[in-house]
Amino acid sequence: MTLHARVSRGLFWEGGAALIGQGMGFLVSLLLARLLTPEYFGLIGIATLAIQSLVFFQELGFSAALIYRQDDVEAAANTAHWTILATSMLLYAAAYLLSPLVAQFFRSPEVTPVLRVLALTIVINSFSRVPYTLLAKELDFRKKVLPEVASSMVGNLAALLLAWIGWKVWALVAGELISALLVTILVYLFSPWRPKFQFVRSLFGELFGYGKHIAVSQILIFGITNIDDMFVGRMLGKAALGQYGLAYKFSNTPATNITRLVNRVTFPAFSTLQASRERMRNAFFRQVRVVGALAMPIGVATVIFAHDFVYVLLNETWAPAIVPMQILAVYGVIRSVAANMGIIFQAGGKPQWLASIAAWRLVTMAVLLYPFIKWGGLVGVSLLSAGVAVVDFIISATLVDKVLDARMATYARILGPMLFYALLAGGLGYLVNAGLLALGVWDVASLLAGGAALVLAYGLLTWWRDSELRPEFNRALAALRQRARRDATAP
Questions:
Q1: Torsion angle, CA of 23/29/32/34, rounded to 10 degrees?
Q2: Rounded CA gap, 427 and 139, in Å?
Q3: What is the DSSP code (8-state) at residue 255?
Q4: What is the pLDDT averaged over residues 238-242?
Q5: DSSP string across 133-181
Q6: So what's the pLDDT on residue 404?
Q7: How far, in Å, CA of 339 to CA of 409, rounded?
Q8: Contact status, residue 169 vs residue 43, Cβ threshold 8 Å
């Protein structure tokens, strides 16, 4: 099977998993937000923030190093597995012991037991890190995504059921634990790899030598993307953190999941194109085109429908999230495109650039967050995040151009028309929603009709006007038809 075919197949499986998993997760999040108050989401947000601040020390960038590595993969995988398992045990102990200090910092004593139980996911997930990575390395995404989808569905349904019967914040905790345990079990059912008692010190040094740059950049990126949560939780309280978290999730999750989907599939592929700058450049800009085409309408739809979304599908306790959600939608679109640039640094052998970019962003956020929150609360921190994302895009694009010998004007040529089409389609969707509401149509139906009009109009405009993206759509539809016929005729 050719590399293009393997990547296309990977996108099919990863895309299907994202569509099912995120679609269900989105619906469950809506229902949970109706059953639980922002304070419970704030508690989970604080505990998750503490856990994620430790998780980046769990694998030391070994997953990316395994994907990049071309020789002694089996021995390197065993070395990575036992390293990750050992660090995970230490990190859980740290989370358990430090939980009272975290609760004290956020002035929320309820955080202590929540953090101690939820941190068990660190240990549970450590067992599946390496087999999960090896499935991605081999571009075997069918076996990789099935555990993801199944565990996500079961965990979400468990959380919803437990919230309905009154478990409150523990419903959210239980859902995460069930999902982590199930995905670990299923990964080993699908992966042929089994760990052996093997640890090679020289391979550890090589993995760490590559992975340390990825780990440092991931730690810095975590700081960038979560330092705002820390300031909001500390300065404005857990209810505000819950509202801000919901605004971020609903405005950023669709766009950033598109990026994560494409990156999972294309980083292993880009790693095989290291010797050909032209092929890597062409593949990268095709990726920018696809990600931009998907992210633009999502961002515009979020800006247009945020108010109706909150009041129609949630309730007034989430109203402070509306304006932050609209601002963060802009941040999400920019971030979704800029995040793809990181794989060029990795595949091009320049992982240290990720750390440098992340460092200036973290310093900027750390210096400006306090005055922006004091000035504008949730709106202020959202504006700061969007502004930093714009500058990050410019810096990242400049560095990518050095690796690929590309031009900055290419981004404008690709993304500009997509934004224009998305705005036109968004205007139509807004008119449809407002018109139906004026006629007295049920508000949920009006909102769905407006969203459907936006998607349909954008799809038609893009297919009609974008001659370079049209073949990608046609190939995707042909692949879906072929797969459907194959499944229909299979015994």
A1: -100
A2: 40
A3: H
A4: 92
A5: HHHHHTT-HHHHHHHHHHHHHHHHHHHHHHHHTT-THHHHHHHHHHHHH
A6: 79
A7: 18
A8: yes
Which structure tokens are listed for 134?
A: 């090896």
Helix (H, G, I), strand (E, B) or coil at 270: helix
Sign of the Cα torsion 273, 274, 279, 280 reads positive
Do 187 and 322 touch, CB atoms closer than 8 A?
A: no
Q: What is the pLDDT of residues 409-428, one digit of tens each?
A: 888 888 999 999 999 999 99
Half-sphere exposure of 107 (CA within 13 A, CB side): 10
Inter-CA distances, 472 with 6, 8, 266, 289, 337, Å:
15, 10, 16, 10, 18
The amino acid at residue 106 is F
Taking residue 151's Cβ as centre, other Cβ atoms within 10 Å add up to 22
Mean pLDDT of the chain: 82
Question: CA 95, CA 115: separation in Å to the nearest integer?
Answer: 7
71: which DSSP letter?
Answer: S
Could you tell me the pTM of the whole model? 0.77
Could you give the angle at which helices 322-339 and 277-313 cross, rounded to 10 degrees? 170
Helix (H, G, I), strand (E, B) or coil at 479: helix
Q: Quick: pLDDT tens for 356-412.
A: 887 888 889 999 999 999 999 999 999 998 999 888 888 888 888 877 777 778 888
Which residue from 136, 239, 134 is spatially nearest to 195, judged by alpha carbons? 134
Closest CA to 214 of 331, 94, 349: 349
Task: State the maximum Cα–Cα separation within the chain, in Å, rounded to a whole number.
Answer: 72
What is the Cα–Cα distance from 483 to 489, expressed in whole angstroms? Answer: 10
Closest to 306 measured CA to CA, from 365, 251, 358, 243 = 251
d(C-alpha 255, C-alpha 294), whole Å: 8
**CB distance 77 to 66 below 8 Å:** yes
Give the residue-averaged pLDDT of 118-124.
95
Rounded to 10 degrees, the C-alpha dihedral 202/139/347/480 comes to -170
Residue 183 CB burial class (10 angstroms; 0-12, 13-18, ≥19):
buried
Q: How many CB atoms lie within 10 A of CB 272?
A: 16
Q: Cα–Cα distance between 11 and 262 in angstroms, integer?
A: 7
CA torsion, ordered 335, 340, 345, 346, to nearest 10 deg: 120
- Distance from C-alpha of 358 to C-alpha of 340, rounded to nearest angstrom: 14
What number of residues does the chain have? 491
Please state, in angstroms and rounded to a whole number, the distance separating the CA atoms of residues 381 and 10.
Answer: 37
Question: How far is the CA of 443 from the CAs of 18, 99, 297, 298, 414, in angstroms?
Answer: 28, 44, 21, 20, 36
